[in-house]
Design goal:
The complex is a heterodimer of chains A (158) and B (196). By secondary structure, chain A is mainly α. Chain A has 4 helices and no strands. With 196 residues, chain B is an alpha/beta fold. Classes of the chains: A mainly alpha (158), B alpha/beta (196).
Chain lengths: 158, 196
Amino acid sequence: MLADYGYIGLLLALAIFFAVTTLLIPFSLSLPARLTSYYRRFQQYLETRYPFMTRFVPPLPRFPRFMQIVPYKPNPAKNAPFECGMETIGKSWVRFNFRYYYYALVFIALDVMVVFIYPWAVELRGLGLFGFIGVLVLIFILFIGYLYAWKKKVLEWK
Amino acid sequence: MEIEEVYSSRQLDIKEGKAINELIARSQEVIPDPDRWLDEELERNVLVTSVDAVLNWARRTSLWPVVCFPACCAFEFITTEASRFDLSRFGMEIIRASPRQADLMITAGTLTWKMAPQVKRIYDQMAEPKWVIAMGACAVSGGIFRSSYSVVPGYNRIIPVDVYLPGCPPRPEAVIHAIRMLHKKIARRSLIAEDE
């Protein structure tokens, strides 16, 4: 059946296997521990806020220990999105200087040039005059862009 | 419009000092290692022991240490990691910079109270199940700096320690011995005895 789709079918099988082993199995194995933890927190919430309600809440049946293969012990530091020994300070909505945007644009243009020029330089002798002129055209086009950026005062930091 | 500064440096200092003083007050007692299960004869059945064997094999042969190198024992650990002593024989060649991908903390070095909240936070962020090897005299008991007001007298004041590794600093062979001891400890771990 997989051969009907060509080798891409094997890739699909690999993707499904990867998803099952890395996501589905760990998550389902941690489910009993998760449920217990959530339920305990819910009970604590009821006890602090509505003590009279606790008698209506049945106790959660105890899962066998061997079902709790993946432990679930959350704490505030572990649940925080930012992983670091230092606590985060300040806001995440900081403003950057607008000139970085121009810098990024010029960088991308020159970066593309570098990507083209490195393999060309490795095969310079094999490609001959045609390749040389082609790269000169590329550099000329990018040089015009560079001159334009220069004229628009992107390179000045004021 | 000005960006308001959330904390001035003075406010930060006060906040940090308060947190450290609270931590010192909280951690006067040694945190015991919950290792009763090492000596207990457990009620074992076939299903659980097979699962245990597989799990413990997987856990002890792919221990990933987290970066926690506050002082000079780190050099001995780097030597252990490098080609001559070659920690990759134990599946430990990857030293994770992120605590979320690590399950072993080798605490190589003296810990000051100023650094203690960060180490505790990194330990908290590590994924379960997790282990700690206290490496070197400073990590075990504070070492020669024990009497100092600013040094934590042993990592077991702030985090539970599994294996104590003496030496100032311990040689790479000793580090490998401690890792083998930890392997033995993990091999005896059982799901039945796993603490809540």
